Amino acid sequence: MPHTALESRAPEPQAAVRAALFLVLVGMCAALHIWKVPPALPQLQAEFRLSLVESGFLLSAVQFGGLLLGLPIALAAERIGLRRCVLTGLAVLAAASMLGAWLDSSLLVLLFRAAEGCGVLMVAMPIPALIRRLVPPERLSRIMGLWGSYMPLGTVIILLAGSWILSMGTWQLLWSLLSVLTLCCLLLTARLVPPDPATDPGQPRDSLGQLARTTLGSANVWLVALIFGVYAGQWMAVIGFLPTIYAAQGISGTTAGLLTAIVAGANAIGNLSAGRLLHRGVAGWQLLITGLATMILCAYAAFGAGLPAPAQFVAVLVFSMVGGLVPATLFVLGLTLAPTPQTASTTIGWMQQCSSLGQFAGPPFVAWVVNRAGGDWQWTWTATAAFAAAGIVLAALIGLRTRSAAPTR
């Protein structure tokens, strides 16, 4: 919805930038909830006697919210306000994590994981549009580069800190601590982030149906969202299966977890670099093709070339690091290519929905390819390369459609 700025006063520029930077930390807090299950999975399997399939559903349940509700929640956020949506999402996360910690039913834990997925979406989806509202245009690409790293940074934190907490206590303790942390983020968000702008009651607003039609009627929105889906699918598959691949190579669980955390964290370097490169005028579609093409080459080097273990690790590290150019670039493109200013959050919502689809479908597709190859992980790269190749074609189409436009800054 258009922001008509009927607030009593706008926030000071430095305060607004600090609020935008704090929102990156809020996104990292939400990411902790997504990745808290992997380090706790052995305890959960033992307590609830989960099969491998049930464990897989527990891992993926957090994606159900984004898979089904990305665009609907974005439409709701346009009505209730972006800040209110973030606050509501943090409240849902805090409540679901605390309730999930003290239930003795695997089904209820699974249901609250799905609720956490909705909470994560309500937090992460509005933040890019909120950041655009808070910061001047000349600083947008840099801060969006930082925002693009919220997921890998959150992944590293929970893989390392979560394992440490679990070494001293139970998974219920980890769930409870994250609930308290999320509640603190909620209170700080309410204090640091300025309220949603008031709107003029007499000014006409697009209906929710019109916002959805405008968003989904844009070819650019579809291109950006589909690239996000194919990127997320391959990144999630590689990061998710790395501990299994390392175990097959005889690498211990602790070492495998540390190596996986390092690879996930390297993705933040690419995100930050994308923000700087976009600020300097590099075209977004060029960064997308560079990131995706590098992922193809590195996936082949890591899995298909028969390299020694140290070289494989370097290849996976570069896969994640240079691949990090993609999400930050997509967030900036999502904001700049949204068909209207009013559809910025719905564009991001559709991107998140396609990302969730990719994260949900990517690992099973890779596993299917490996099974067809007789359990040989050597063919992992063919599955991830298929995703990346599709993304390169879509990025080239973005280049054709936007080449005459000014570079994103």
Automatic annotation (TrEMBL):
Residues 19-403 form the Major facilitator superfamily (MFS) profile domain. Keywords: Cell membrane, Membrane, Transmembrane, Transmembrane helix. The chain crosses the membrane at residues 15-35, 55-77, 84-103, 109-131, 143-167, 173-193, 214-233, 245-270, 282-307, 313-338, 381-400. It holds the Pfam family MFS_1. It is found in: Cell membrane. InterPro entries: MFS, MFS_dom, MFS_Efflux_Transporters, MFS_trans_sf. It is a multi-pass membrane protein. This is Major facilitator superfamily (MFS) profile domain-containing protein.
